[in-house]
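Before we proceed, please read the two lines closing this message. Report back on whether the structure tokens fit the sequence:
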Amino acid sequence: MREEYRDEEAGIYLRLMTAEDTDRIIRWRNSDGVRRNFIYRELFTRESHERWIRTKVETGEAVQMIICDLRTDQALGSVYIRDIDRQHEKAEYGIFIGEASARGRGLGTAAAKLMLRYCFEEEGLHRIYLRALAGNGQAIRSYEKAGFQREGFLKDDVKIDGTYRDIVWMAAIAPAEAKGGR
């Protein structure tokens, strides 16, 4: 991965996740502040995360990165793409800011922009899509600032804690200059 996936203004950079990040990711994903905004809310375990690495990351079906502070190298959260479809050049995007002190500072928007650049420039993907809980307005605004556009609204699409919830479907398409660079 090139070293250019950094945002000086936001003070972050992206690096590939390693096995050494496992305990941190488990802690982050199991925190209430992160879990409440995810569709998949099962608790993470070491075994489930290692299975994710083995069956998704190592097979090329997913790419997961860590969002780091430029000054301190502190890990702040994670961005990833999953279900990479090479035939149709698309993947599903996900993010979480794991450190509570890093939330609400615009880092999610900056990280999403960096990850989109990575997806278009390095992975050669054309379309990155995501699903957001309709009630998560802060995340939806952040995704829009990063370049995602709303494409659909799915009524009662998922059942979480016994309640049906609506989903906003969003996507970002590779800019023309990214397509020419492959």
Summary: The chain is about 30% helix and 35% strand. The domain at 6-180 is CATH 3.40.630.30 (Aminopeptidase).
